[in-house]
Amino acid sequence: MKRIKIIPVFSIILLFVFVSPVYAHTTSQIGVLEQTYHTNPNYQDYYVGGEEVGWSIDETLHTNGTSITYSFAITDPYLETAYKVYAIEGASKWNGIVNITNKLDGTGKGIIKTYNEENSGTVDRFRGAYTDANGHLTSWIIEMNRSYNVTSTTLAHEFGHVIGLNDLYASKNTNKLMYGYSSRSVSSPPYYRLKGLTQYCVGPYFAL
Question: Which of 44 and 56 is assigned the larger pLDDT?
Answer without folding.
Answer: 56
